[in-house]
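Deliverable D4.2, example record:
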Amino acid sequence: MLHSKKVGTLPVKGRDEEKQTNEIKIAAPMLYAIEIEGRTITADALLTQRDLARYLVEDRGANYHFTVKANQAVRLEAIAFYFQSTSNVADFIQTGNGEHGRIETRKIWVTTKLNHYLNFPHVSQAFMIERESIDKKSGKTSQETAYGITSTPVYQASPQQILADNRGHWRVESCHYIIDWNYDEDRSQIRTGFGPENISRLRRFAIGLLKSKKSNETIPEMMKKLLLNTRAVFDYLKMTRNSNLLSMD
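Output generated by the structure prediction step:
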């Protein structure tokens, strides 16, 4: 699965310095050493590019699952207009189990009728996803609508599968969001040698550890609690006698 970051880095041969380059230019090089034939590569709106679509399908035998936003204004308008003017029942509906203190309902509509009109390489389906979230404590409701396109044909990807691909992508994005905003990684002063890679791995390990815990708290809430309680950190890592006794029970 391909996931995006604000800025990517490529090492300059023989030097510790790294040259900054935008993520569009490094998308294909990132995939050179990965076997992606037959896989679906997901990406957000910044990477919804014709050249990348051709590269994935024609050169690598993969499929794409792209988000469509304002940087593809004509396609966004066409997809939004089609689904908003079609009052059909959703092709698939999924209700979450109330994780993280929220009850989520996700609906997806899919069409092949826009394939030629969108004028985008290898597009096989366009889709609209509506997400509704209800906070179990406050009862507050929030809604979000997302649009996208995929090269995966109907016989290979049902609406349920397209929704699963989309949700899988945003699980990865949520990790980057936490790293960007809670760790403020973009302004990290660790910049030389293997330091940036190592600290990034440690941050991802910490997030993975927190996500493995069954809790109604959000990741930022859990991070704040642990920041103020060193003992709780050792309990999370099962490095105390009490935490080991609890795990044995």
